[in-house]
């Protein structure tokens, strides 16, 4: 798209996923890396015009203040990133660092004010860099899911509470989503299982704001594998009886998920696709354990037991092992490119076809990876045509 | 299809796959088993009229003469089949046994005569039971692949050689295929990696004979898994560098494949889909070991190494463990039902959409399981419509 | 030992382990099975005189009243036992069933009375069958561990509470242990992780009663493997950093352990050896999941991460899959034979060398399987010598 | 041992194992690494006086001439060694490089002359550095095993052939072994499965020369695991029926073993312990595949099938993954230290207790790892006592 540069605004910009994505964008922009791991770099997308890597500009929010270069070096020391690459893109990391804005964990004043502050940061970033648009991606730490409350079901009541300086009604992920979608009219992707826009009172927010949104909770490792494998059993008429999973990981995400509150939203999100594809009777115990010595290398073991013809038993075990953030980062870049296209083509509201990237797809019940892949490609082609037919935004 | 009963003629009728299928057909016919493991019993096929299980009649050829009941009891003792089921269907096995005809390993006279004898057996079976049609399925032991020869490329020369009582130009699988397709005008499926119709001089045989055929080499375990998983890596832009496999099995197939000649055709067939889906550069060592103590329970371990974003390494291990013949038998029944439909709808020649069932699909280069599944369903719907529009065959 | 028959009294006599052991004893006695899986049938024990299989007589307690034959048939249906064997020994199962005595879950009167009733059952069994001795083995369902209380540390206070008809101070496992050791002067083995004799006030009970005891919690699958593998890492100077485990099982034990209270004692017991062998710093998350569709076939996955020379990383994964009760039953028979020998040789108190059979060995801190095996053999030889030197008991 | 410095002479000094060991010795000497992975650094050896790491001096032979630093940097790039460590010890690598002497693949003159040249290099190294002794360790590429020949059984005939300038009777590994043992009276360890001293005519060479020797073929990964696990099955009376193995590796060793000739000696050596521990009936298919993209990270999958009580089936799968040379290097250092002790204590000939380190132990039939570990410790204690009693060598 020859219409100028596109901003990428990370919520959780100093985290493992965001840092990896930032290093990756820099490396791709400088031709130091090939776009391996990106869906949008595949042959099916060749005719779809998307923002070039060199046209992406990174900014973002974080509650932490570790410099991006330092964060990247730590990831390199842990084996996540090649050291030589981090050093080669250090100047770009330094530049991106300057575009990051701090968040406070317990902001003062009303939550409405906090939303407005966050939105202003995004708008300032867009203006300062003269960007065509800014895509906001939430890659902050997974939050505990809050209990339901009346304000979640009543927009007016919610607005009252948001304006009340003493009330704390929304979690941070929702504040950021509101800042992006309503406050800055920015396309938005939720890569985490946090609450974000998942409350009834905000169901129409994105459509009303005229921006495309996509979510939620990136589908990268074990869950990806499950939504690839489960349809095989179904197509072949085998009855999956149980699908057990054990996840071992260290790193930042490991530490966060060691908290039994935070892990709950993740577990629900991880098992959603399985039950959707195989039915609710499947016994599906699932564990995530924090194993600090494994660092960012995540290992997942799954054990599937299915019943086949004439009472036969089929067992399948899978062990998947990968650095999680290098799986997530290219998806984040894909999302930025595709939401940018969607926005340019005038699409608003949740984009079901981006469900391909998520454990818990907004606007869609399709979890089968192969079908999602087909839907994504055909959506991208349709949208590119629509966009090229449309006057430049 | 309300047009009478359908014959199932197994080449290798006393083997593990055929015996399991015969027990299965009997159990389904008597309502003693549910159609678990059958693709054609799935919801997508609900509106497609296919031969009912009680309308299938089993016959076949084998070089061995162990009674079917005995063979079934041995499979039950080895854990492949439930004993109570075998006992419950023993009368039907006895009946099927009476419809089996012997083959000699080294038949006398010309190969043309042998083809004619085999065809006559099939025609007699059809007549004796008043069957609408007979579908022939080759589930005999895997043969060594013969070396190429001029007659394979020249139909006239081939016919001369076949008529020569002293010449032995075709392997048994091709004799049976000719008997079915040309000699008995019977729809035919090749479930093995043997030569069968895979010679240039016979490329048009099925179309010319007006019968549908499908092949080859049933896709049941490790290979099924590979063609489900490989497209995931491709869609996500990851580069698979190596895909190693180790297969352990005992039983009849294990003993056959312990022969380095026989195993060659199997190995080629098994790796075809992988290279087609991932390119020829993938390092793909593959072993099949005869481990008699494992009996019919086959265990396959695969190790996949892929390269992802920013030089990251992804490894995936899978261990699949199942009784091979209970995976194969429902596919054989699916094939009989679908080839019966194809024949009734007037389809002739290789049916590419049946590639879903095979490691090395005839008439198609599509190996991605998910795409094959979509193509199969849509083909079945189209063919059922065509069939219902056509006058009864 | 030519001194007459030996009784085996199972607490939990209708459970999976006890039923399997009872079937096994019958099959061994009738020469229908070989002593595969028995340590005491190995060459190292050839010169050690132990009770013959045909000289073992089974009795026991259970709160359930399902007939033994029915229980055995259910196990056979689930794949645990060969059906033909169960049928072949049905008369012996019927006989054993007649020797079983019921327990009530909530017995009336004082706990002292209940102990006395249980002891009387054991003594009656000994007298009725004219047995040289009765070895009691606790294979009842795992109990939740009770909270500590003053009576556990003060024998006098304990006796007072036991005599009080309204007090309930001890769990059932301890009542049975007291019945065996103090009430019936019977050698006793605790195959479960329940409280049993594990309270300070009973530390000297066995020595004082003059009977040998052994415990606790049979070491059969994953834990066995761990105590075999951990010493390898230690010997080679590698530093194990984490050892994660996932256990999947159905059956009776699966259902019991689905209770978070009951599973706690099991988890503690399972990890004891690991920490003892590798130190307390090893990160060792461990899960047991109830997966009913897997029945009695237990599958355990372990992931070990160790640090080696020059910061190298070593990972080892193991997947162990077996029918748990067929692993446990031969150990139970070994224990009966060896405790019988110990008793005949006049040994009293916990026998540390029987730690070989347990996750949490009484009287010993040795968890290394290889060392335990050496200690066991040498103890058996010493005890057999001592016994042959002693006058017949 | 306070008697001066000890030389380490590597045959194959520029290979992966030797380079890793050389980096490791340097790092240990400078206190940059802890002795993780060394058996001799364990508490059992605390009272045994062994050469200190700073007292080891490295030299050696190789047919290749890549500088050691470059070789080490390549290993670091492949993930085998930490880059910072390689850089930190670069000066020491440079020093060691200067002590390396070239070998030619096809040396001119008689083989006797070649032996003498190699011996002279070792002696010169000892003199130049004023070393108490030099321990020679063969870590060269695995050779194809030569066919048997009369000279292997007749020392006189062998000597005649060695003196004949046109005869080529011994492989390089045997030439190096003769150079070390007979030519330089140096203690010698054979870490490879090559022929080395394994010919009848040289059976007494080491004893006659008065030097201790140890071999053969380092036991580091899959084989180590097997000799740890197999004794468990035996002790518990389970009958192992099959033990299948698949090994995937790249790197130098992977390339060498891709040669079907070279791999044969390795396969024989790998399976020796298994058959010795479990009997010859165990079905044990074993494969080693060269998978270049895996580099030096070796992955081995084993599948064990055992029969237990009452016809139960037990399966165990293990996946071991590690950088092979970092497993081997500490063993090489252990061997140098222990052979140095043996030599100082006046021990000559094959040392059976060093079988702990080898797949195919010289002078011993013991393959059980636990027993070997016990024997090693007790031998080291005995030898240290003997040494301290002896006058300084
Ligand atoms: N494969 C994957 O890595 C993957 C897949 C799916 C989802 N996710 C999700 O992505 C998120 C990021 O994962 P990660 O590995 O980068 O975690 P991380 O812990 O490394 O990074 C999270 C970052 O968010 C920051 N943060 C915390 N609270 C914040 C707030 N209220 N506002 C702004 N920033 C905040 C933290 O300071 C940190 O820098 C997690 O929620 C994770 O569940 C990751
Ligand atoms: N999952 C699966 O089981 C699976 C998958 C793909 C392909 N296959 C193929 O199916 C075939 C059958 O497998 P199986 O396990 O039943 O093997 P099997 O050895 O149990 O049975 C083969 C039968 O073929 C008979 N036979 C041998 N030569 C014959 C000939 N010339 N004519 C007629 N019969 C002959 C044998 O006597 C035997 O009864 C094999 O070729 C196998 O490779 C099986
Ligand atoms: N490999 C193994 O199977 C293994 C290994 C170690 C320990 N164990 C332990 O052995 C025990 C038995 O295992 P299982 O698989 O046979 O379980 P199970 O559930 O099949 O059998 C337990 C039996 O105990 C009976 N019972 C319950 N409460 C009782 C009481 N108070 N008094 C007498 N009987 C009582 C039940 O009715 C049942 O018949 C469990 O505690 C288990 O943890 C088993
Ligand atoms: N875990 C392990 O790494 C392990 C375990 C057991 C045995 N081994 C054995 O150790 C040996 C070395 O393994 P590696 O990974 O270092 O292999 P490598 O290929 O990296 O190194 C072998 C070295 O030997 C040199 N060489 C070849 N022929 C020679 C000759 N005739 N004389 C002197 N040098 C020669 C080569 O140039 C090379 O530098 C192999 O035989 C291997 O089988 C290794
Ligand atoms: Na959805
Ligand atoms: Na030996």
Automatic annotation (TrEMBL), chains A, B, C, D:
Gene3D superfamilies to which the protein is assigned, alphabetical: Dihydrodipicolinate Reductase, domain 2, NAD(P)-binding Rossmann-like Domain
- What positions does the domain Myo-inositol-1-phosphate synthase GAPDH-like occupy? 221-325
Q: Where is the signal peptide?
A: none
Q: Which InterPro entries match?
A: Myo-inos-1-P_Synthase, Myo-inos-1-P_Synthase_GAPDH, NAD(P)-bd_dom_sf
**What does the similarity note say?**
Belongs to the myo-inositol 1-phosphate synthase family.
Name-wise, this protein is: Inositol-3-phosphate synthase
Record organism: Agromyces tropicus
């Amino acid at each position: 798209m020859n219409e100028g540069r596109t901003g990428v605004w990370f919520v959780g910009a100093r985290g493992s996923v965001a840092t990896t994505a930032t290093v990756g964008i820099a490396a791709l922009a400088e031709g130091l890396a090939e776009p391996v791991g990106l869906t949008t770099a595949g042959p099916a997308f060749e005719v779809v015009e998307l923002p070039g890597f060199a046209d992406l500009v990174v900014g973002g929010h974080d509650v932490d203040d570790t410099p991006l270069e330092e964060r990247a070096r730590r990831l390199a020391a842990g084996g996540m990133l090649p050291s030589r690459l981090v050093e080669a893109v250090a100047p770009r990391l330094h530049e991106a660092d300057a575009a990051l804005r701090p968040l406070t964990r317990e902001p003062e004043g009303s939550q409405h004010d906090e939303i407005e502050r966050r939105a202003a940061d995004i708008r300032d970033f867009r203006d300062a860099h003269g960007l065509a648009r800014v895509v906001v991606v939430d890659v902050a730490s997974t939050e505990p899911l809050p209990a339901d409350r009346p304000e979640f079901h009543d927009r007016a009541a919610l607005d009252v509470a948001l304006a009340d300086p003493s009330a704390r009604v929304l979690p941070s992920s929702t504040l950021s989503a509101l800042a992006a979608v309503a406050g800055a009219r920015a396309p938005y992707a939720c890569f985490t299982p946090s609450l974000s826009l998942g409350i009834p009172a905000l169901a129409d927010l994105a459509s009303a704001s005229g921006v495309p949104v996509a979510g939620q909770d990136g589908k990268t490792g074990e869950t990806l594998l499950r939504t690839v494998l489960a349809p095989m059993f179904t197509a072949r008429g085998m009855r999956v009886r149980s699908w057990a999973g054990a996840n071992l990981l260290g790193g930042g995400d490991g530490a966060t998920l060691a908290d039994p509150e935070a892990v709950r939203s993740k577990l629900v999100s991880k098992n959603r696709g399985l039950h959707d594809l195989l039915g609710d009777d499947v016994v599906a115990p699932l564990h995530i354990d924090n194993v600090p010595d494994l660092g960012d290398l995540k290992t997942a073991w799954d054990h599937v037991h299915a019943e086949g013809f004439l009472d036969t038993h089929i067992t399948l075990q899978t062990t998947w092992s990968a650095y999680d953030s290098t799986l997530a980062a290219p998806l984040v870049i894909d999302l930025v490119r595709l939401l940018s296209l969607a926005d340019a083509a005038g699409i608003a509201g949740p984009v079901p076809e981006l469900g391909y990237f998520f454990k818990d797809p907004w606007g869609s019940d399709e979890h089968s990876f192969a079908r999602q892949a087909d839907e994504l490609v055909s959506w991208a082609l349709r949208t590119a045509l629509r966009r090229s037919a449309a006057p430049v935004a």
